[in-house]
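Field reference: sequence -> structure
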Amino acid sequence: MTSAATPATPATVIALDVGGTYIKGGAAGEDGVLRETDRWHTGAERGPDAVLETVLAAARELAERHHPAAAGVAVPGIVDETSGTAVLAANLGWRRLPVRARLAEELGLPVALGHDVRAGGLAEARIGAGRGSRDFLFVPVGTGIAAAVMSDGRAVTGSHTRAGELGHLVVRPGGDRCPCGGRGCLETVASAAAIARRYAAATGEDGVTAEDVGDRAAAGDPTAATVWTEAVEALADALTTAVTLLDPERIVIGGGLARAGERYLAPLRAAVAGRLTFQRPPEIVPAALGHRAGCQGAALLAHDLLRRKAER
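Structure field:
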């Protein structure tokens, strides 16, 4: 726990984004923008208690370095921001873990807890590619696929805190089995993991990443081109459903696949536009904040917490 004799720096906050591979951390000043970042290996294979201890140790290190007034933390899975609980973070082994309370006890500071994708959507809304858009979707496409449904600058959570599970829309009925228990979910076709897996299954070549598949598709590899195109088409199907239901004016694509740039985004725009009839086509743009989005969002949540406390 931070020493009571060490005064907090006004408006300075620390932030953590807990991922399956890395824990990203940083500090933000009065404007809420991350100025310094760091990362630690999550070590999820060690078990849920060890992961929590690593998170607490990272938070202590940041607090000792920056003397913050508050902390924010973003975690994956099913998150109940109201109670401060990680309901289920399968890749971390966490179930019903009171993350906010544990961090607050450890640091002696007010703590804000958020869902990693919704926190990323908040960051893109305020200082990223969602600025100036009243209603947009933030869709990170990486190992998995999710979405933050942003409306008037806030993330829609749904009645059971499960809104935005775009990756589990069924786009290929009867298709591959998804870890969620369904078949043909978007993640089984269009995620980075699915692209790599489907290419390996078609060629027998292991160790090829989704980025490699994109490079090979651009170079004329017909198998890579098929896998890449199928991923884009599946995502377009899911986004068309989302556009029909939600009418966003913008879709912000993040995650690792967005780094492929126009060779990914241009065919995606065309595929979505070709599916729309009466719907108004949204802008489809790359995210601005990259892998920092979740941590940046956690910092903004911590600043919001301080503001609400000051207004009481």
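Note: The chain is about 40% helix and 20% strand.
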